[in-house]
């Protein structure tokens, strides 16, 4: 039996999901749900688990209409997540909601992503401190940093999701990471 390429394996997965195959939905859920949940938690959504479930439900309901490659599916999934997060923030602005610290730490801690110098520095702090640092960023910077570092998306995918040019995403990321670096260094120097 010949070995399938990554592209062929994705096409098979996509076709199975479009046909309603349970194993395909399970695989898609396992690929994306934790990353979506962590992204929602980084954006201080009260019910990150609920957002992840709603995103995956919408993906499953509309998978038959999706056309594209795996990177496109990832961008589409996080675009849905971003839109639901925006809706959740609008709804929350009409009422008071408190995100329990334990829930945020549990969700953010569950994400397994590529290591970088910035992430290693953030890992040395508690998750609560990391979220407090992210709160120092502008909304756009926080969103870009979360999509790049927590959701582990490419610059191109983030640009598609936030509907900005790649150069703008790079600039937002650079300014956000510089701000985080200054804050982290200031904390390390402070007695």
Order of helices and strands: HHHHHHHHHH
Radius of gyration: 18 Å
Overall form: globular
Low-confidence stretches: 104-108, 110-115
Mean pLDDT score: 82
Biggest sheet overview: none
Whole-number total of structural domains: 1
The DSSP helix count reads 10
User: What is the straight-line distance between the termini?
Assistant: 64 Å
Percentage beta strand: under 5%
Helix content: over 70%
**Class by alpha and beta content:** mainly alpha
Instruction: Tell me the total number of β-strands.
Output: 0
Verbal overview:
With 191 residues, the chain is mainly α. The chain has one domain. Residues 104-108 and 110-115 have low confidence and may be disordered. It is 74% helix and 0% strand. The protein has helices at 6-18, 22-42, 48-62, 70-93, 101-109, 117-123, 127-134, 139-150, 155-162, 166-189.
Short description:
This protein has ten helices and no strands. With 191 residues, the chain is an all-alpha fold.
Q: What descriptors fit this protein?
A:
10 helices, mainly alpha
Topology of this protein?
Layout: H1 6-18, H2 22-42, H3 48-62, H4 70-93, H5 101-109, H6 117-123, H7 127-134, H8 139-150, H9 155-162, H10 166-189
Helix pairs in contact: 1-2, 2-3, 2-4, 2-5, 2-8, 3-4, 4-9, 8-10, 9-10
